[in-house]
Amino acid sequence: MKLLIMGLPGAGKTTLAKTLVHRIGAVHFNADAVRENINKDLGFTEADRIEQATRMGWLCDRVVESGGIAVADFICPTEQTRAAFDADFTVFVDRSDQGRFEDTNRIFEPPSDPDGVVTADVSPEFWAEKIATAIRPPFDWTKPTAFFLGRYQPFHDGHRALVLEGIRRTGQACIAVRSMQPDEKNPFDFEYVKSRIEQRLSAEKGRFVVLPLPNVTQILYGRDVGYSIEQIHLGEEMESISATKARAKMGQDK
């Protein structure tokens, strides 16, 4: 997930970002630090602000590609700069009517539809907890859930893509790991498999649960059971991924 914390200078963006990243295990990009260390060539013209947002977005995308959460805090003053950054979740820190830079005040456009608005009436810790709950909600055992049953020896990209699609369709997923006698096809125990699943799906924390199951060999059901059974097709490239080949590569890596 790519999260933007935006607002006027001095509104408290960085304080909120630093408080939030510790709660959700995210990578934090502060615009002033990025300008100082990477974007020294950029000023504060409209074009440079858009380029800054584009580069900040690119940095965050690299974190998201690796399965993490990226939090960027910067003014991001216009609809164009916000479009250039392209956030998944936008928080507007609305704690100041005027910033200390007149040129920024002149062009600043409050976002029309942010995912969250932070006001000055309570602490950053309060808002960090609210945002963390919104983007990483605790698993709700009563909500509709996609169910996946497998050995996951190991949990590979095809499994990950399946679970992500299940989460997209229903909101959360239950990943059930079959208990198997250890052999060359099943070298990993449940705790290892669970840890790898949790690492690969770290950005979806709170939207999935991993459970051990007996060695289920048949799934039987009666009529009017209240759920459907559906095959998800992810395309030839994903469906050709082999656990056997993945295990062989892991052996070679050792």
Description:
The chain folds into two domains: 134 residues, Rossmann fold; 108 residues, Rossmann fold, CATH 3.40.50.620. 41% of the residues lie in helices and 15% in strands. The strands form two sheets. A five-stranded parallel sheet has the order 2-3-1-4-5, with helices on both faces. The longest helix has 20 residues. It is elongated. The model has no long low-confidence stretch (mean pLDDT 91).
Task: Explain briefly what this protein structure is.
The chain is α/β, with parallel strands linked by helices. The chain contains ten helices and eight strands.
DSSP helix fraction: 40-55%
CATH topology of the largest domain: Rossmann fold
Question: What's the main sheet like?
Answer: 5 strands, parallel
The level-1 CATH class of the largest domain:
Alpha Beta
Helical run tally? 10
- In terms of per-residue confidence, which ranges show pLDDT below 50 for 5 or more consecutive residues? none
Strand order of the largest sheet: 2-3-1-4-5
The 3D shape can be described as elongated
Topology, number of strands? 8
Distance between the termini: 32 Å
Mean pLDDT: 91
CATH architecture verdict of the largest domain: 3-Layer(aba) Sandwich
Topology diagram in text:
Layout: E1 2-6, H1 13-24, E2 27-30, H2 31-37, H3 46-65, E3 70-73, H4 79-85, E4 89-93, H5 102-107, E5 116-118, H6 124-135, E6 146-150, H7 157-170, E7 173-178, H8 190-200, E8 208-213, H9 236-239, H10 243-253
Parallel strand pairs: 1-3, 1-4, 2-3, 4-5, 6-7, 7-8
